[in-house]
Amino acid sequence: MAAALPGIVAASGVPETLPWVASALAIAGGAARVMALPAVEQLLDRFGIGMVDGGSASRR
What we know:
Blueprint: H1 5-12, H2 19-35, H3 38-46
């Protein structure tokens, strides 16, 4: 959802310069960056909710 937010805002026609829209885009971008960190992926893998790696990992 966080990665798709800029596209959703663009499609809706809401001006990106509104303060609340700019804040939402910044928070979504930060959340997407944090979720992409290897340490976060490893933590999610421990709970069984991480992404399946392409190729070597078995699919559930």
